[in-house]
Amino acid sequence: MRLFKTTLLLLATQASASHLQLPFQSTLSSWFGRPIGPSRIPTFILDTQHPWVEQHRNQLERVPNVRELLCNPESIQVSAPGFPDPIPIPNDIFSSLYVDNNRAGISRLGWNNALHRLREIQACPAALRTCESLNVDIYRHGGSEWDDTWEPATPPAELPGLFADVLSQMPKLKKFDWVRPSDSGEYGLQVGTTVSSFVKGFAERNLTLPAVEHLLLGPGCESFVSMCPNLTTLETGGGLAWPHWYSWSNETDPYMALVRAAAGVKNITAFTMSTQSWRPELLEAVLESMPHMTTLKIHGALDGHQRYSMEEDAEKLKTLLPIITRFPHLQHLDLPPVYELGVGFDGGDPCGNAYFGESGREYARSVALQSLHATEKATNITLPYMPPTLKTLTIGETTVNLDPPAGPGAIAS
Length: 413
Description:
Low-confidence stretches: 1-32, 183-191, 405-413
Signal peptide: 1-17
Oligomer: single chain
Radius of gyration: 27 Å
CATH topology of the domain at 94-243: Leucine-rich repeat, LRR (right-handed beta-alpha superhelix)
Strand content: 15-25%
Distance between the termini: 79 Å
Helix content: 25-40%
Strand order of the largest sheet: 3-4-5-6-7-8-9-10-11-12-13
Shape: globular
Keywords: Signal
CATH class of the domain at 94-243: Alpha Beta
Largest sheet: 11 strands, mixed
């Protein structure tokens, strides 16, 4: 009988909660500055971390139809209960959107998050019309299917089509980052089983993104290049999503596959790639596929270079330089950090403990001086091979300005 009475009391309390504001609710609301319960603001808008949304979140949470107001392309302001002045809506609130469960502070299942965020975006005309940058980073939780967070390698059947529908409705999309899906824990080595579903889904819809000028891709996504006929900037992204520590034949190398795919787009002028296997064949392919390039960023390391080695062996660097000479329009060149170039500098102790205390500070100054001398040595090796069109040469974080106004060899930054 006591349990029955308690249950009735709880039901009565819940039934009246929608009509009465209980004292503790008012107190908690004043503590947090916004109504208690699920946010009225769509999650994809919160994920933008737009300064205006962060600044006015308390007021926005009090607007019953906040989603409709923000997503209406004709809306110019929001009026919040309890706040006398309307809040103007900035026109760039949807300029950068994210389908991403791999950021700090976000803990969501990959496929589920992607479905929900895309449905929210699809239902928001203002987001579709004004989005200029879309970042996709779907981390699929692997492990055992008995784990609560396990997700299958193959995405939900509707997801590729939903992606295609959303992308096709973004006329102003200029920058498209597809970092992953890739297989968690595999560092991209088995990426094909997951990405192929999207490649097939996009191809079936003949998806084209004519406004995209900047494309950042994870491994196995080279077919996305052909979807962007007006592409001018191409780069790799995703860190460990790419397989860094393996030797590849030209037929199986995922980096080579991306470079070759770029040959189908004629307007690429800027290319950035981070790999531990820069070698003559790869750089030759870059020259062949993107002959109009003005900016080349060679990040990572030269193929076969022994990291943290004091051995002086610049031959790997010297095998690349004659190829760089042949880029007819190159204006800006980035090379890896000097400790990756085989000029007798190992970058110093990689352990932070070595830099503590008075002796650590003295050691840090010694490393900085060695780095300066090594950078000068690498610059002297490199400059004779540079094409006459080159304006800046960057080695690691040091840039040499070769423009006549600053004078040859002037340190730019």
